[in-house]
Amino acid sequence: MASNLYHLLVEGRTVWLVVAWALVLALSRFATAAARARLRVPTLLLSLHVLTVVIVAATDGAGYDATTAAVAALAFELLALVGLAQVLVFWIALPRVGVSVPRIVVDVVTAIASLVALIAVSKRAGFPVTGLITTSAVLTAVLGFAMQDTLGNLMGGLALQMDSSVKVGDWIALGPGQPSGQVTEIRWRYTALETRSWETILVPNSMLMKGQVVVFGRRQGQPERVRRQIDFHVDFRTPPTDVLAVVRREVTQDPVPNMATEPAPQVLFLSVSDSYAVYCVRYWLEDLAIDDPTDSEVRVRVYFALLRAGLSLSIPAQTLFVTADTDERRDRKQREEHARRLAALARVDLLESLGPEERAGLADQLRHTPFARGEAVTHEGDHDEGLYILVRGDAGVRIGRGDAARDVARLSAGQFFGEMSLMTGEPRSATIVALTDLDCYLLDKQAFRELLRARPALADRVAEILAARREALASARDQVDEARSRRLETAKQDLLGRIRSFFSLDDKSGR
């Protein structure tokens, strides 16, 4: 047996095993703390191997049978070699080249290698391995039935690693509304989730396989993003376009850290409650671990952006109106509105020759028509009939459609448009788009019909103004020629005839 000890310590495997252990120990200094921790088991097995070799030598020298100790020495040797190989390959070499192997895969490979080593030791010791496997079939079935949950967790963990449905680093939740966490490990029995509250949730792998799992921020072919929504309330009397413009400018021109610029953040008008309007900022979060701090920063930005614009956040409130709705109050409000309408009509050059009573009659028939920024007031080619008087805001005049559309003029408060459709019934010759929020009054055909029937001579003045406007529009369309003055007169006569025909006026009564 002394020769066996010499073979193990001098000529053979023990010396090389110690050298391999020293080499792995030296390399582990350049690896992570986890790799150094993994060396504890191979070091223990190597120590047991050396100890059993000494025991074999002592037992053999005393004349006793050392077969059992020799088998143990071989088992410790092979298991230590498996442990060293695991640390060298999975914890030192592969991480150095940027390859990360899931923990459960490392454990399965190590378990299979250890099982092969033990079978080899059994064969060397003369144990009937084949017979043992055959006679233990019933025992294996009983153990399998008793450990079905454990086996389910094991197979679930392997399945998760194979199909990559859940990976280390993913943020997941076990269904909508359930606590969420980041996957840090997928082990034999469970998957570990670390929450933002510094809690660790251990989820059995079988639950992940059977139940619904929400994986946050994952979309095919897109970077990891998750959408967040921040609601805020503003007084319902504030124009929504003002609120949207202020907040949108704030979150797009100077994004909050950790807020993705693609997709771009959105600012939306959601609803109107009892005492306030509900808005929201929707943005996409880049770092899923920093959700609440980013939400807080967005709220701060919204608050100060609204303050700079002279707006403020609203809170639920109730207002009790105690003003008596008397006849005197109603009359005063009607007089104020009537005065605003008369002022709007006074700006329309088509109606400058009207007397006070005629303007008052038209004022009563005007209809208030507000528009939000971006809305089309009229569309080129439409056959609606009416004249719009701008009271507040700016509008753009656009001709052409699709890619050929271009802006040719800008209208502001005090101007009007739509007179051609009102006076002749012809389709709209341009599209009018609200560049800001608009307050308008609409004068329709029926109201003007009564006026022209009372004063047919007014049609001549209207035709003259319309002819000048048509020429201006023709200039915008690059249709001006040298006979401009002659065309003006021709257009005037043509329009005059069409106006009389459209309103069914007797031509003789106007002359």
Q: Can you summarize this structure?
A:
It is built from 18 helices and 16 strands.
N-end to C-end Cα span: 142 Å
- Look up the CATH topology of the largest domain: Jelly Rolls
Biggest pleated-sheet summary: 5 strands, antiparallel
Strand order of the largest sheet: 4-3-2-1-5
Mean pLDDT, all residues: 78
- Number of domains in the coordinates? 4
Helix/strand structural class: alpha+beta
CATH class of the largest domain: Mainly Beta
Q: Tell me the CATH superfamily of the largest domain.
A: Jelly Rolls
Low-confidence stretches: 142-147
List the helices and strands and how they pair.
Elements: H1 2-11, H2 13-28, H3 33-38, H4 40-61, H5 67-96, H6 103-125, H7 129-135, H8 137-146, H9 148-163, E1 171-173, E2 180-186, E3 190-194, E4 200-204, H10 205-210, E5 214-216, E6 226-234, H11 240-253, E7 266-272, E8 277-285, H12 292-308, H13 327-346, H14 356-363, E9 367-371, E10 376-378, E11 386-392, E12 395-399, E13 406-411, E14 416-417, H15 419-424, E15 431-434, E16 438-444, H16 445-454, H17 458-476, H18 484-502
Antiparallel strand pairs: 1-2, 1-5, 2-3, 3-4, 6-8, 7-8, 9-16, 10-15, 11-14, 11-16, 12-13, 12-15
